Amino acid sequence: MDQIITESRDGILRIEINRPDKKNALTAAMYQAMADAIKAAEADGGVRVILIHGKPDLFTSGNDLQDFLDNPPRDDKRPVFQFLYGISQAQKPIVAAVAGAAVGIGTTMLLHCDLVYAAPNSRLQLPFVNLGLVPEAGSSLLLPALAGYQRAAELLLLGEPFSAQKGKEIGLVTEVVPENELFETALAQAKKLAAKPAASLRITKQLMKQGQMAAVTQRIKLESDHFGERLASPEAKEAFAAFLEKRKPDFGRFN
Ligand code: COA
Asked: Residue 45 CA to chain centroid, in angstroms?
């Protein structure tokens, strides 16, 4: 799977999203590869930290819209959910390095990471409503809790792109880091974590997340029910067709 590159070195499992010709859009096969890598990392005593990144100017444009049509995730057993349950329940720390487009799951997956470094060229976006869909990855629960209701509503209802700086203001981004230092910074922080007592890290993370873990898992499932239903809606079909035909969608005929 050359669209997801994994490399384990010095206690760090690096997961690189590598499909630049489609703006790193994620297919079911790519989610499966990432889910498998996280599962293997959790079981491998040699891995102490997970580092997720894309290209210097591109994180991911989110779910592949064509793959959504060809391969709709109708239930929460599908690869995307294995990936989401994997990152949301991971015991080992996860560091993310974000640059360029970080759309849809490219933003929501960050809610499950422990340290998020983002370059000033980042364009985060939660365009679910614009696509006739609903939020996923537990974001309908985690984002209001993190950012406050009004800021979450702005990002989820309007679905417009926002900057790394705004991501930092709402608590989603740990630090904004210049493009040319992004990967090295994220790697250096991952190395710091890899050198720490692994059990203490694991238990600390577990303690911080314990109160909300069951609620997050339950919300991911609830969102997936709505998501599957909305994916089959005429609004979503119009939004996806418009994207693939490079035109503006027209939702005027649906109510
Ligand atoms: N799914 C499938 N294909 C995608 C994609 C996606 N999420 N994002 C980009 N692509 C494809 C485009 O169709 C295009 O393919 P083509 O060269 O065969 O025509 C190619 O990647 C380049 O994309 P383009 O839109 O020309 O690049 P851009 O730099 O102008 O814009 C984005 C980049 C990320 C802003 C834009 O592609 C976008 O909005 N993508 C959709 C994001 C989205 O809605 N994701 C789903 C979230 S749930």
From this structure: 25
